[in-house]
Amino acid sequence: MNFLPIAIIAYGLSGITAVIDKILLKKSIPAPLTYVFYISMMGMILVLFLIPFGLIFNFQSALFAILSGILGNFAFLTYFQALKKGEASIVAPVVGGANPLFTLLLGSIFLGQILTPMQLLAFFLLILGAVILTHSLWAKKLKINHQLFLMILSGFLFAFAYLMLREAFVSSNFITGLIISRLTGGFLVLPLIFYPVTRSQIFSGSLTKHDFMNKTSFLMLIGQGFGAGSGFLIAYAVSLTTPALVNSMFGFQYLVILITALFLAHEHRSTLLDETLTKLVLLQKVIGAGFLSLGVYLLSK
């Protein structure tokens, strides 16, 4: 099966999740740890339904999957910490760009995941397209500080997590690797509810303070649903090819954010995009989208 349509849909869902994350992190969920808890627990609960469909225990696969689950949790934590400290318009592109670069570097050095010349060209075209697409968002705002360290660390941890997940898939099968990695992530955050400080952070959000189906709670549930779907599809795409190629498709989530913003009223558009859509900026985004399309075309050959 071709990973391309799966990865494109996955990052499209990720774009919708990013829009909701931006709203919730600014207005409703002050603690990044809260988000990591809900993401990990939802992942653990969902994979329980997959256990009857192919769980085959293998020590080597389990080890890789456990490492992936641990690294994934810390990757999300550093990502949301960086997102809380600064603008989403800076954090998401930097983390998204660092992730595939680290994946390519680590995968080729330690795991022998070498891309063909055509794949390598497509990889860099996809990265270039994403950089051009988001350039006006971060170019004048990016600073060398603690936030930048968190962003780079998050990209590194995500890369390492996906590489370990790929090895888990290769060592056993997709379902086994996914189940063990998500169970690990869930069990890792479960002890947080037994500590007063972290318990108060986790259970002080709108899901516990207000009616279950108020606007914020509904948004969070929708966001987590799209996020879970995106994570599942990205994991499945990783099971089909090298993680570097899958992660290089991250620019498509910004196309979704841009398209979403274009349908919003003008007063809400700037809040979502963190920029004004001048003719020059729109031209830049069209060029970026063109490079993304060219990269996808080369991968489909």
TrEMBL record:
What's the protein name?
EamA domain-containing protein
> Which PANTHER family does the protein's record reference?
ACYL-MALONYL CONDENSING ENZYME-RELATED, SOLUTE CARRIER FAMILY 35 MEMBER G2-RELATED
**Assigned GO CC terms:** membrane
- What keywords are assigned to this protein? Membrane, Transmembrane, Transmembrane helix
Q: Where is the EamA domain?
A: 7-133
Query: Could you tell me the superkingdom of the organism this chain comes from?
Result: Bacteria
> Which stretches are transmembrane?
6-24, 36-57, 63-83, 90-114, 120-139, 148-165, 177-197, 218-238, 244-265, 277-299
Q: Which InterPro entries does the record cross-reference, listed alphabetically?
A: EamA_dom (IPR000620), EmrE-like (IPR037185)
Segments forming a coiled coil: none
